[in-house]
Amino acid sequence: MSGYTFDEWFVVRLAHTITDREVVFHGFASPCAQVAMHVAKRSHAPDMMLIEGAMYAINPTPAFIPPTSNDNSLKQGAAYSMRFEEFFDAAIRGDVDRMFVSGGQIDVYGNTNVTAVGPLERPKVKLGGGGGGCNISATIRQLTLWTTRHRSGRTVVAECDFITDLGHRTPAGTRAELGYTGGGPQWLVSELGVFDYDADGRMRLRETWPDVSIEQVRAATGFEFAIAGDVHSVAAPTEAEVALVRAIDSLEVRRGEFDSRELEREFEFTTTPAR
Amino acid sequence: MYLDPDKRVDLATAASHVRDASLVALGGALTSRLPMALVRELIRQGRRDLHVVGSAHGMDVDLLVAAGAVAVCEESYVGFEQDLGLAPAYRRAAEGGTITVKESCCVTILTQLRAAEMGLPFLPVRGIKGTDMRRLHPEYAEITCPFTGELLVAVPPLIPDFALIHAPLGDQFGNLFLEQPYVLDERFAGASRSVIATVDQIVPTDTLAERGVTIPGYFVQAVVEVPFGAHPASSYPNYAYDRQHMSRYVTAASTPDSAEAYLAEWVHLPGGEDDYRAKLGPEPLARLTSWSQSVDQWKGLFV
Question: What residue segments make up the domains of chain B, in order of their start?
């Protein structure tokens, strides 16, 4: 194995937002998050509880990831599948530790818009919709946000045109003021950088990809963001992790989330992997 | 409760229960167990102004919208996921203002269906506050919990006129066997005034009972045997979804003219579903049933 591509590294970085013994969920239309959860489960988080997206299957071991999130191939190896109600009840009572969330727009506080860009009555772009995220983003313990479209300049914006899923603060108030039990976004992993959130709930650059300058990140972001004092490079993936990505996602469904430009980003393994 | 001992009818009769402007819950989700034969038949019958509701859906909603059959859409998501992208006809209609978008949230819909099943005038949800969802739902209200003082959003019961549900197996009483995920189908059955069901196969009740009854027949007004009635969605354990056909549809739906051409070619067929299956051809349909032969065969369906 001589090298790896950006999509593989991105998925491994997403996987490392999961810690062991967490109960973790991804939504539909989320192949990068989906593959990342299986990578985590088979490497550093063996005792996480993996809830498979639209199948609600517990710890399945699918032979491949299909291009839709509710194919039966995704519940293979699972002894139990939750009912729809069981999953959403667990999420709203606070028994789910982490959910992966993306959006057509993501603002400085990590609110996301998956409903409509432009005026609501006559949107410029009608996005697909949020599934269950509107309610469960309030109560799930932590959120990992991700986007593969930061570079467009239209995704990470000062304000969302519509808030579908909750970040740390909305015009109506903070999570504490709204009475929400979930902790909100912990990470935003984008193809331009990895961000966390400061005490005020504002996005902050924490890790950089080696082929992206901070100026490029600034140019693509709709607001001024802080840079963490300990900002550092994203840890390189191990050969074993990249092999896992390839084995789990042999149909390369994850690559559908990226522009061709991002898929051309290639990297070499160093002799001493960082992890 | 529907107590007739034999609810078997033909597809045209089953679909004719649904009226213009009915509130219709669509069963299944995304690419799984969509009630496509009923959707196609409603289009053939020229149904208009439907108010559709459901969780995360795709081609069922988009095809109804493409045919001009929808006035209000209250699904939590309409699209073809990362693979095939946004729903073309739904997007066009929403952006052009020709349908009313009342996008909802899976949890809210579930809560509203539970209120309907319990005969309650409302139930609270913890979320929604702070999001923009109430801009789409002025009917929601706020309530202060009498025990804790918490301010919660109250949502009214959701009572669909009809739930359209496709199942792999059923019997003449309308008992239905589903494979997981059931999504909202059980709740739709309990909350709706009527369930109209299609099944790939009607079997004797004894046979069905051995597999297990997921939705009891007393909720079901009419049941129709329609082989491949969910196509191009899946109906496990019988067949996987037809990604090639969905992709063909998404391409066709990208302009009004080519969407019309798709409807003419695949929906407005004189022989209805018999013509639809004949047009698809026995070999491509058999291929969708071959998923269980091997992992490679299954995976090969999605390349």
Answer: 11-103+159-289
